[in-house]
Design goal:
- By secondary structure, this protein is of the alpha+beta class.
- The protein has one domain (21-77).
- The chain has helices at 3-14, 53-58; strands at residues 42-44, 49-50, 64-66.
- The protein has a three-stranded antiparallel beta sheet with strand order 2-1-3.
- Strand 1 and strand 2 (49-50) form a beta hairpin.
- 16% of the residues are buried.
């Protein structure tokens, strides 16, 4: 295997995503994301309210919208 082929193989393997789509609006949770603590509640597509869009994304939601409900409440996306 040439150095060029080895480089391409390494590049291909490093670009592989561990994210898994689990539905139309939900993917695998992203526990490594660090979110800021700004309170701007959103209703996520799993019908739960998160404190902000970053927290919804971290939980694996791909879609959300602003809401006036409190964190942890049920909502209708």
């Amino acid at each position: 295997m040439s150095i060029k082929q080895l480089f391409i193989l390494i590049l291909f393997l490093s670009c592989k995503s561990d994210d898994q789509l689990l539905g139309e609006c939900f993917g695998s949770p992203k526990g490594e994301i660090a979110c800021i603590k700004i309170y701007e509640p959103v209703c996520a597509c799993n019908n739960l309210v998160y404190s902000n869009s970053c927290e919804a994304d971290k939980a694996g939601n791909l879609k959300w919208k602003s809401t006036k409900l409190s964190t942890g409440e049920s909502c209708n996306y």
